[in-house]
Amino acid sequence: MESKNKQENSYARSLIEANLNSIIVIDQTGKITDTNQVFIEIAGKDRKTILGSFCFDYFTDPKKVKAVCKQIFKIGYINDYELTITDHKEKDVLFNGFVYKDKEEKVLGAILMARSIEKQKVIEHELREAKVIAENATKIAEDATKIAEDATKIAEDAVKSKQQFLSNMSHEIRTPMNAIIGFTKVVLKTDLTAKQKEYLTAIKISGDALIVLINDILDLAKVDAGKLIFEKTPFKLALSVTAMLHLFETKIQEKNLKLITNYDKRIPEVLIGDPTRLHQIVLNLVSNAVKFTNKGKIVVSVQLLSQDNEKVSIEFSVCDSGIGVSADKMEKIFENFQQAYSGSSKIYGGTGLGLAIAKQLVEFQGGTIQVKSEINKGATFSFVLDFQKTTAEAVLEPEIIELSRDIKDTKILVVEDMELNQLLMKTLLDDFGFECDITANGKLAIEKLKTKTYDIILMDLQMPEMDGFEATEYIRNTMKSQIPIIALTADVTTVDVEKCKAVGMNDYMAKPVDERLLYSKLVAFSKKPLLIIEHKIGQNLSIKKIKYVDMNYLIKLTKSNPVLMIEMINAYLKQTPPLIATIKKSLEAKDWKSIHAAIHKMIPSFSIMGISPDVEKIAKKIQEYAFAIEISKEINELILELEKVCGQACEELEMELENLKK
């Protein structure tokens, strides 16, 4: 029996020592009756000292251990209770305990096990730190995002501020320039000495140059702000190119240069694109070529590179025989405010913005632009753009017509706060023959509209008390009026143009006002039966008026002398048909010089016979085409139209001649 007990005790001892956890056995008072080597090592004392001592003394919180032991003896066990064993380092443990009994189920004591959770604590600590780091990183990321958002907002606000500044600057500069250029034009139409005309012309040229600079700066701002909007309009490329090049005829002649145009006839007649932006690009390149070329020629080429069922790819090139660009400058000339030579602006003028704007206008449309050049041998600027094909007709475009006094009872309301501009608009409208009232802001304009009827409103945008946008909204939404409203704006940014359309304005004009364009727009919106030349690009010109001859003018010219009138009519009837025949014959022979000479002889007779100035415009267009020696189809259409008009005029004059003879 004794041998069996020894064997059991040996087995129990082996189990206790084999356990990797600290084990202590206590009686009901808490005294240690047994322990294993793991606990001895942790306690740092020998077995004899430990046995008989209280277990509470080996933990950092004895009261807590007493409470735990009491709970074990009360309910029989405890699981996973965290405590800290007193050690030279202190060690966190997970405490488990259960009672043990004799054969009669009498509780003898309790067995306590303490499993080290140091590694777990380290892991938990690392996890907490990782969590803190993650939270900090998240906060940093959120802060960075907020900083980025704030920076973006600041940048956007800066762009808006710049746009607003440029808008205000444009308005402030354009307003006085409007008056300066406008009144200069008015005075130039009066009787002047040669010296006075020379001085006034110099003022006008300087003013025009300043307006070009303002437009360049505003265009650059719109590119930077990403506010450029490209239209998708059907237009006739051949006619657009010709019209652009006509603008340089005077300068080309002054410098004794030769302008040559090579146009690829394989290009479809009507394309879809933005003709206005195309004009801007080509005008910048041709202007640059004219500026830096003092002898030789400028060749403008438009070539079809490729096409498919939907689009065409076209290369435009401007080649000159000017001073050229050095190799080290070619990469920089497309940058803002850059020029080929440091002294270019002093010698040739300009701001260095033209090529920068041209490049950005090309690239914003998905195109490419490049330059090839040699010093003193000239330069070739070329760009490639894609255009959509279309079967649609080109958009209706009103022609700018010659000024006429045939306007009766058309009433214009001018809404403008600047006194100088008020005076200029009154001068121009009086000169056109329109009736006009002038008021200083939108509120006063609305009061005028309540008591008087007008045919058209010319509305400034920036005014005190009520601006042009607010006034237009009130007229459209509250007064329910559809009277044509044309905005007069010194700010030509895309934002304001869109806003003009949004509030219900019919059209807009940039200041300084071009008097011919103003007249054209007023005629287009007037309901009066006026003589207007209109055309669809790609279609024949047509004149919408039944009578071509104004006998009242001839009567006034001859002071009602019937003999003189008969003589003058006979002279016209004798000279006109042969001149028409000469023009047609010269067209077949491509004798451009003869066409030019014949037209030159015809033009004075139009005013003598009281024939509308618009017929003279057709004749002058023929002269222009003849001078350019190109696009024979267009000149052919114009000559047919001139023949028709002159034929009708001759018929009318023959009838008048019969009446006079009677």
Strand fraction equals 15-25%
The Rg value, from CA coordinates, equals 47 Å
> Would you tell me the overall average pLDDT?
77
Number of helices: 21
Shape: elongated
Provide a quick synopsis of the model:
This is Sensory/regulatory protein RpfC. The protein has 662 residues and is of the alpha+beta class.
Structural summary, described in words:
By secondary structure, the chain is α+β, with helices and mostly antiparallel strands. Helix content is 53%, strand content 19%. The strands form four sheets. Strands 6, 7, 8, 9, 10, 11 and 12 form a seven-stranded mixed sheet that branches. Strand 9 (297-307) and strand 10 form a beta hairpin. The longest helix has 71 residues, at 118-188. The protein is elongated. The N and C termini lie far apart (171 Å).
Write the layout of secondary structure elements.
Blueprint: H1 2-18, E1 22-26, E2 32-35, H2 37-43, H3 47-50, H4 62-75, E3 77-85, E4 91-101, E5 107-116, H5 118-188, H6 194-224, E6 233-236, H7 237-246, H8 249-254, E7 258-263, E8 270-273, H9 275-291, E9 297-307, E10 311-320, H10 344-348, H11 354-364, E11 368-374, E12 378-389, E13 396-398, E14 411-415, H12 419-432, E15 435-439, H13 442-451, E16 456-460, H14 468-478, E17 485-489, H15 494-503, E18 507-510, H16 515-525, E19 533-536, E20 542-543, H17 551-558, H18 562-589, H19 592-608, H20 613-628, H21 632-661
Helix pairs in contact: 5-6, 5-12, 6-11, 7-9, 9-11, 13-14, 18-19, 18-21, 19-20, 20-21
Keywords: ATP-binding, Cell membrane, Kinase, Membrane, Nucleotide-binding, Phosphoprotein, Transferase, Transmembrane, Transmembrane helix, Two-component regulatory system
Subcellular location: Cell membrane
Membrane topology: Multi-pass membrane protein
